[in-house]
Design a protein that fits this description.
The complex is a heterodimer.
Chain A lengths: L1 H17 L5 H29 L19 H9 L2 H32 L5 H10 L5 H15 L5 H5 L6 H12 L3 H9 L4 H9 L4 H17 L2 H6 L8 H12 L3 H21 L1 H14 L1
Chain B lengths: L5 H4 L5 H34 L17 H8 L1 H34 L4 H13 L2 H11 L6 H15 L19 H26 L3 H9 L4 H29 L3 H6 L14 H11 L3 H28 L4
The chains are: A mainly alpha, B mainly alpha.
Chain lengths: ~290, ~325
Amino acid sequence: MLGESRRLRRGLDESVRTSGRRPTGWAILAYVLLTLGAVIMVFPFAWMVVSSFKDAREVLSPAILPSQWTFANYVEVLTRTAFPRWFMNSMIVAVLNTASVLFFCALVGYVLARMRFPGKQVIFIAILSTLMVPTEMLVIPWFVMSAQFGWIDTYWGLLFPGLIPGFGVFLMRQFFQTLPRDLFDAGRIDGVSEFGLFLRIGLPLVGPGLAALGIFAFIGNWNAFLWPLIVAQSASMRTVPVGIALFSGEAGSAWHLIMATSALAIIPVLIVFIIFQRQIIEGVVLTGVKG
Amino acid sequence: MIREPRAKRSSRLSLTQREAIYAYVFLLVPLVFFATIRFYPALQSFRLSLFTWHVDPARRVFVGAQYYQELLANPVFHQALKNTLLYAAITVPVSIGLGLGIAILLQAITIGRGWYRAIYFAPYITPAVAIAWVWGWMYNVNFGIFNRIIIEWWDFVEGIGLPWLAIDPQRFLRDPEVALPAVAVVIIWQQLGFQVVIFLAGLQGIPRVFYEAARIDGANPWQLFRHITFPLLNPVLVFAIVITTINALQLFDQIVNINFTDQGGPLGRTLSIALYMYQEAFSRARLGYAAAVTVVLFLIILVITLIQLRVTQRRVEY
């Protein structure tokens, strides 16, 4: 993958250099346009950060930068709201769901790709067909079910819908299918158990797929809004998106506090993104190409 | 089929049977999950849409297609449907076009390509709820940065004696005519990076010899795009169009939060089907009616996806 993109890039360099048809003017124009676009992409984040450091009066004034940078808004949000609690709730839900997604999607993907049993095709198509059902169609029955079983306002209630996404199964199946059959046949002959074949031979070879799936499961759960909004009814069970939506809704025109809250939700994600930028983007490519 | 070693033949189960049993054991928990958390609820939505809502199942009254007739005649539903299709009609072509354009530009540069790609992609993974509040603040009529820039611009062009270049301050999310396009801008801004990343990967997957051969034959840049890039990118385009359309049809997070005190407003002009469903189900406790709304949404998504797959697949034949 990496080697291939490096080769493609080298090929591109050469074609730029050697073909007289592509003057450097084209590259300069590309840089100008891309930089302009990048400014537009970054601006909302920058404006959020700048606004979050202004005091209540200054945030409504025409000044661009705060005359005095203040952390008071962050302190106020962190102490006045239950933000640390929302953060913990989001973390618990995202971590547990990601663990479940990785294990079960890999297991089901492995079984559907590598094991032989009657009814395999039917099961695969049934799981695939769940991808066509929008979440909106499921939240009402989930709510009815949760009310019936007492799952409202519980961690289980927050996380049960995301335990095994059909997309993850599909993705992992694609990855396991690319592995050579001989590997598993050899393992079988050596007496490796069926679960061992999955765990010790299959799993280590689908690392990139697992990484991509894990990152998306985590981000998807971290950003989820519709279902947590429905199932988290007490303030202490809110996740970050639900918490900031309801807090900001009550804050009225306290935009300095609203921007500090938004920054608290967005900046951790951006930091993680900057660190794992390459893996995340390659994950999108992998899932986009495989999916 | 693998060849079974002689020694194993003597055990009571054949290897094939043993493998099948293990497969079912591994699938047990996931299949229970899919049956109870995906299939049953999907069917339950159909069923709930045929009954009046009551917590006690015994007290739900069968009303048949009444909710469907009601929603088809309901002007608020019509508005939500129209808005939702408008969101798709705006965000899909614009984000695909811009995404493809940016990907082509990225391919033309070498230094810093990874960083530009990361900058365009960043908004895609940030929480839509927080993003909507940030844009809501920028769109604020009295204190928002956009109107400040418009006023600064006004002063500037008056100062240099060209007052006819001035733009009036906008009411953005408070203006029924402007609100929906303003929300669409936020959605395009947030998902553009996804298009850029997959298009760039698609472009890089096209062998360079195709271009070189065509250039030797005297093809111009437009012909290269029209006859090489576009057809070879077609599978990626289909994928991007389907994903973007489905996302547009399910819009909820941004619409709730960008105009929190008047969700779906002004005058219902930003209301989406998902938000309408939420309001009917959880603000008005009309779960049966809301279930009917979701069934219609499901059918719309199904039909549009099937049409798109058919139409776009036909174009692949080149």
